[in-house]
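[Q] Does anyone have a clean structure-token version of this?
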Amino acid sequence: MVEILHAADLHLDSAFASLTEEQARQRRQESRQLLRDMVDFANDHGVQLLLLPGDLFDGERVYAQTAPEMAEALGRFTGQVVIAPGNHDWYSPRSPYARTLWPDNVHIFTGAAMERLSFPQYGCTVYGAAFTGPEMPAPEPFRVPEEDGVTLLVLHGDVAAPGSRYRPLSPEWLAETGADYVALGHVHSCSGVQYAGKTAYAYSGCPEGRGFDELDDKGFLWGRVDRDKAELTFVPFARRRYRILTVDVTEGDPAEKIAQALSGREADICRVRLTGSVDERLPLSGLQQQLQGLAWQLEVRDETRLRQDLWLHTGEESLRGLFLQRMRREYDGADAERQRQILQAVEYGLAAMEGREL
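[A] Here you go.
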């Protein structure tokens, strides 16, 4: 049995183009600090192997301090570190991996063919390979020797995507390896532990989101691997989370409703979608200024509809027109509460007929 921490896709020195220059600088520094915090977690929880399957850097060109700071952080880990470079940080003589002096406990795969690392102190063997260019073909068939104790693979690749340019890995290939656990990088959401035959495998996801396509909790996998068994837990670890919040402002003060939705999000990067029916267009710039400080970075989008717009197509000869005519007759004869319910029903009905989301 071996205690592991599996993390990938840090993408250090990402541009964070949607943020201000100062916010982007702060996020890059926070991403470097996250690695130090991860090492502290590993030391505090008795982790023996830190498995990092690639895209630790966002590209070949990094800030001068980034790789040395990573080396210093990993050197503080009391166990052993295994890195398998990915498609963003592929190994070459010019890569940060080749130009940095790494501590003795850091082991980096440098070739496209499978390499072997033995850790007899932990009763396990680790295999892996690097990206040696921005794209990699599917690997050759591979199987771990029976006598290698607990066997781990560390790879950056694309499972169940046969046409991928980024080392496509089939479930059949994973099963045939006979490994006890395959630590994967490339996919930015945590997959949880999956099985291909008796081989356990997982994507840990990225430990920090970098945009609104990487929402909510991000982190790493932590736990133990034994022969034919992997017991790993997802650990949320992101300092800041990207959130998309939908707020219906049909009734009530929009600023108050947004503030309520943002409660407890002071450290997060939030996009608020305003929906519902309003009498006039909302003052977005004023709302954003009024709500400053309720999120680390806030973006407000007005997706409301003017109330008179709801009935715009009432007279047309179509399914939409017939729907609106019927609803308008009911609306005109209803009390205030029923009118509110009808307006909401009309909004959802129109959205469904027009093929859009609310």
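[Q] Thanks! Anything notable?
[A] The two ends are 50 Å apart (CA to CA).
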